[in-house]
Amino acid sequence: MGNRMRLLVVSYMFPCLRHATSGVFFANLLLELASLVDEIMVISPRPWIPRFARSVRPRWRKWYLDPAVSRLRQIKVIRPHLPEFPGSANYGLNGHTAASCLGRLASVLAKTRRFDAVLGYNALPDGITAVVLGRRLGIPAVVFAIGSDINEFVSHSVINSMLLRRALKNATLVLANSRALEEKVRALAGTRVSVRTFYKGVAVSSLRELRTQQELRRALDLRTDRKYLLFVGRLIRSKGVGELISAFASLAERFPDLDLVFVGEPLESAFVRRELSRFGVEDRAHVKGLLPYSEMPKYMKASDMLVLPTWAEGLPNVVLEAMVVGLPVVATAVGGIPEVVRNEVTGLLFEPRRSESMSAAIAHMLLEPLLRERCTANARELVLRDFDVHKNAHELLGIIEQLRQRRPPRPR
């Protein structure tokens, strides 16, 4: 029987028909947590778009593919359509707008369910909404800081900065994705903010059950006589895809059996195509686009190296998954990445925005089999010890339980 606890969650990023992998690692954590508590209810806001506008831009119809109420196994998911201001500069404002719109719904739900805490995944805008709802319902508000919210979106407008700082200060607890991000939260909101590092983790057990590399290559239509560098993430400039293509081009002649695979949402696909053509390597690149989450670990196991050239990051789960399946990792030394990719111990690090540094690291990993063997063994041990989502769900339950015990009990 679950712990007698009910949790309300606000998460704009949550798996849906429009984007099946949105917030998937957080969803996996909640699914583990759901087996330990009485109830988890997720509110995942969607932009309200007038019917005529949806007919003008068909891609906007995708926001209406999911029903208003559904279930992800044990978790009830409510997807209200709320007014939103466009653009990341308005995320803070949208957080407060959502809180205003959801206040009555949350109050009605709370009368029958008596939530013990509200969680906001992604400090901006979700965390702002969660803090306002927590104050209204008189329950602890836990805000997850995941990376782009603190590293990027906060600087997009004065409103974002002001509202996020206030939300972080008023949150009962902020859970940062990495130690580096924890320090950034303190720098942003002051030393009195209640913040600690918490790792969501990855589904270790499911990643161990993959088929062999050769079997997966045949299933994924990849050649068994080639080597593959893998990139997983949004295809945008700030993820370092331009530098990756440049680095690959410098290695292409030296390693004639080496190919490059892109898996992720092609937000700047024209830029990627242009860069591949400019460097003359389009025939050795495979752009797979956005795939179901279940397919991504298969590409990891089928590849020879994960390359993560991002300019800024919290702590990317794709690195942890690669480590579990035994894929060597080469990544930029930014954000929380050095907490898991320890140079020449669990992987190789290189300087961001430096394609020559990247190509040197890739070549070093390709040419040193003992280095690959040592790094993959150490990396797997690290993930099994600290980043198993099953273990970390129990840790999160303990954290919330402590917050609940600090406040006087409410009448039932």
Plain-language structure description:
The protein has 412 residues and is of the alpha/beta class. The chain folds into 2 domains: 3-201 and 388-406, 3-Layer(aba) Sandwich (Rossmann fold); 206-386, Rossmann fold (3-Layer(aba) Sandwich). The protein has helices at residues 24-34, 51-56, 91-113, 123-137, 148-151, 158-170, 179-189, 204-207, 213-219, 241-252, 269-278, 296-302, 317-325, 355-367, 369-386, 389-406, and strands at residues 3-10, 37-43, 46-47, 69-72, 75-78, 81-82, 117-121, 141-145, 173-176, 195-197, 227-232, 258-263, 285-287, 305-308, 329-332, 348-350. Strands 4-5-2-1-7-8-9-10 form an 8-stranded mixed sheet, sandwiched between helices. A 6-stranded parallel sheet has the order 13-12-11-14-15-16, sandwiched between helices. Strands 3-6 form a two-stranded parallel sheet. The two termini are 20 Å apart.
Query: What's the number of domains?
Result: 2
Order of strands, main sheet, comes to 4-5-2-1-7-8-9-10
Distance between the termini: 20 Å
Report on the biggest sheet: 8 strands, mixed
**Structure summary, number of beta strands:** 16
**CATH overall fold name of the largest domain:** Rossmann fold
Coarse morphology: globular
- Gyration radius (Cα, Å) is 22 Å
Strand residue percentage? 15-25%
Helix content: 40-55%
The CATH class of the largest domain is identified as Alpha Beta
Low-confidence stretches: 408-412
- Which structural class fits the helix and strand makeup? alpha/beta
Mean pLDDT: 93
CATH superfamily of the largest domain: Glycogen Phosphorylase B
Helical segment tally? 16
Query: What is the name of the CATH architecture of the largest domain?
Result: 3-Layer(aba) Sandwich
